[in-house]
Amino acid sequence: MQSGGIGNCMNMFTLISNCRFPALVLVTMRGEWGEFNPWQIPMGRAAGPMVELAGGTICRVEIAAEVGPTVEAAAKLTFNTSGLVVVMLGQKLLGVKSFGK
């Protein structure tokens, strides 16, 4: 999901923590490095703290070569702990979105 979707999932995230079932979520970040749309910035800033408030663990990736190993480690962590683990793929890794020329 995109980072803005985290705000829509808070009830589900707290349910995951309370019921202790594994959930691995991959998040593409917006509102960070090179962002052109100011509407994306608030949720980009709030996404990490919201996951942590819901009891989740964050694994952040900024380097392409680390995506595979990080997702693999995050999957093991979520199933070993029966909890929420979110892999955040930084905007610098993904590149700047542009809808202009």
Distance between the termini: 26 Å
Q: What is the 3D shape? A: flat
Number of helices: 4
Helix content: 40-55%
H-E string: HEHEHEH
Rg over CA atoms, rounded to whole Å, is 14 Å
Average of pLDDT: 91
Multimeric state: single chain
Low-confidence stretches: none
The total strand number stands at 3
**Strand numbers in spatial order across the main sheet:** 1-3-2
Going by helix content, strand content and strand pairing, the class is: alpha/beta
What does this structure look like?
Helix content is 42%, strand content 17%. It is flat, with a radius of gyration of 14 Å. It has one domain (3-57, 78-94). The chain has 4 helices and 3 strands, in the order αβαβαβα. It is α/β, with parallel strands linked by helices. A 3-stranded parallel β-sheet has the order 1-3-2, sandwiched between helices.
